[in-house]
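S.,

Sequence below, as promised.
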Amino acid sequence: MPANGNGKDPVMVVVQLSGGNDFMHTLIPYNSPTYYDNRKLVRIEREDVLPINDDLAFNPNARPIKKMFEEGKVAVVQGIGYPNSNRSHFRGMDIWHTCEPDKVVTEGWVGKALRELDPNGEDELTGINFGVGLPRAMAVPGVPVTSVNDLDSYGLMTGIGEDEQRDQALQIFKDMYAQAIGTGPVMEYLSRTGMDVLRGADRLKAAPAQYSSTVEYGDNAIAKSLRDIARVHTTGLGTRIFYTSHGGYDTHANENPTHPKLLQDLSGAIRDFFDDLNEHDAADNVVMLVFTEFGRRIKDNGSGTDHGSGGGAFIIGEPVKGGLYSEYPSLDSKDWAKGEDLEHTIDFRGIYATMLEQWMGIDAPEIVNGQYEQITPFK
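The prediction came back faster than expected:
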């Protein structure tokens, strides 16, 4: 059975950090010479970090998440990845979306979970994406999903605007996936499923009207998306899986000005989101999974960091048993992947399985394509 004992259906919020978040710069091994020897530019000095033990510290720009960690609401999954990590954004994200590193397939893991939750495909609001287009993770033929870029304009759209937004969403989806699986399967998928992408519009119009909150979210994209999720969740429309993305993490260059703002926006938005849910007595059945397609190289490149592996994920919420899970990747150079990367210490498919089985109450092997080590991050 799922972990929440409150009688409410468990809800999962998936937040994708697009571009490859620099995990070593997020959870910093602040007493390791390796970090300072290899990070001449992209580094946080020892006196500025937010320590959680003698070895690891949060980046000071992630202060709200550090506070939630201290409150026991954040599980940090260290060293998440998979063997022979693919450093291509497109293929790397594709692997995370389909749980299939060795071949290109058409069914996303979230879509397969939605099929378990709504086997007859009757409710297009069981899964909602906030963002432009539709993430590959949610795409499964016959599984209806609603995709919304902006809840406020969505509720006010005329028929013409609706058609235009639908066409734009479908075009973006087509552009993203045709190069991976060919135009034929994409067009077949869209003809079967694509028209569901905006089918939930009428029902979603109720959400902004019914919502009020004293929480003031930041003025940035991820805060807007998480506020939209809070508005729909607190309206009680029965959505079980929400998905959204926060972009800009491909920090090959100018990481020092870019990454702090990303972490500030993200961690502030997450704190505001859970404060908002708590204000509405709607937090006890929600758990958030924050992931990214790969970590970044151990050594900086003089301006930023290049694609690597051995990243990190966060599982956040009231039902979570906070702490560090799995192991921080070895900082001994003989253990590095490809001679320059952090090696993963736990397979991402085991973390998906943890969320699916222990939180959502869904059998995972067919969704993640196998049996993988899980963690126990729930109370």
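The CA atoms of residues 141 and 281 lie 35 Å apart.

Coffee later?
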